[in-house]
Amino acid sequence: GAGVSQSPRYKVAKRGQDVALRCDPISGHVSLFWYQQALGQGPEFLTYFQNEAQLDKSGLPSDRFFAERPEGSVSTLKIQRTQQEDSAVYLCASSLRDTEAFFGQGTRLTVV
Amino acid sequence: AQSVTQLGSHVSVSEGALVLLRCNYSSSVPPYLFWYVQYPNQGLQLLLKYTSAATLVKGINGFEAEFKKSETSFHLTKPSAHMSDAAEYFCAVSGFNFGNEKLTFGTGTRLTIIP
């Protein structure tokens, strides 16, 4: 597609449930980023991939968060045993080496 | 370490009036600076970016920003506000390798346009 695609757009999970969020970056973009945006806040960095290599995961808030990009294209952000504080919009962005990041529309996760 | 401070979480201006959204940055390396706009239930769209070329940067939708190193500022302006400018605006900073580096965002400024 022409832009970064994220699915699902909305996800409601019961506390304790596992969720998986998908990101399809722009074709050919080697860099992929995940951000978490809490209500009324700016996006905060979670993790970064260059092709299939996860080069920075310093922003992942706990070991319940896990991300992968096995073939250097589609990425999945997995959250295990969801908690209410995980409720947020999860944004994916992709870029080339010398371009700005292009963002998807995000997945709004609500944990009830 | 890098950080961004956006002064004013809410700004209201009349339609046709000047828009000024403030951003100050802190960076231990020469910064690259960005302004993104977010409409409700949408992702972030790049308005403009500063990448160490001209200090006055022009972006989309009539917006521009000026990089002032002495003031560590990168304020966003538009001469005449339009109703369609109502949105959330985020300032962000990264290092020179911006395609391969994370962005550090401010907390955002919600712009309201008064008819």
> Structural class of chain B, please?
mainly beta
Record field, number of beta strands of chain A: 11
Radius of gyration of chain A: 13 Å
Mean pLDDT of chain B comes to 93
Tell me the greatest interface.
Answer: A-B, 30 and 22 residues
- Counted by DSSP, the helix tally of chain A is 0
Q: For this entry, what is the oligomeric state of its chains?
A: heterodimer
SSE arrangement:
The complex is a heterodimer of chains A (112) and B (115).
Chain A lengths: L4 E3 L2 E4 L5 E6 L6 E7 L6 E7 L2 E4 L8 E4 L6 E5 L8 E8 L6 E2 L3 E5 L1
Parallel strand pairs in A: 2-11
Antiparallel strand pairs in A: 1-3, 3-8, 4-5, 4-9, 5-6, 7-8, 9-10, 9-11
Chain B lengths: L1 E6 L2 E5 L4 E9 L4 E7 L5 E7 L5 E3 L5 E5 L4 E6 L8 E8 L9 E2 L3 E6 L1
Parallel strand pairs in B: 2-11
Antiparallel strand pairs in B: 1-3, 3-8, 4-5, 4-9, 6-7, 7-8, 9-10, 9-11
Keywords for this entry:
heterodimer; A: 112 residues; mainly beta; seven-stranded mixed sheet; four-stranded antiparallel sheet; 11 strands; globular; B: 115 residues; six-stranded mixed sheet; 0% helix; 56% strand
Structural overview:
The complex is a heterodimer of chains A (112) and B (115). Chain A has 112 residues and is mainly β. Helices cover 0% and strands 49% of the residues of chain A. Chain B has 115 residues and is mainly beta. At the A-B interface, β4, β5, β9 and β10 of A face β5 and β10 of B.
Sum this structure up briefly:
With 112 residues, chain A is an all-beta fold. Chain A has strands spanning 5-7, 10-13, 19-24, 31-37, 44-50, 53-56, 65-68, 75-79, 88-95, 102-103, 107-111. Chain B has no helices and 11 strands.
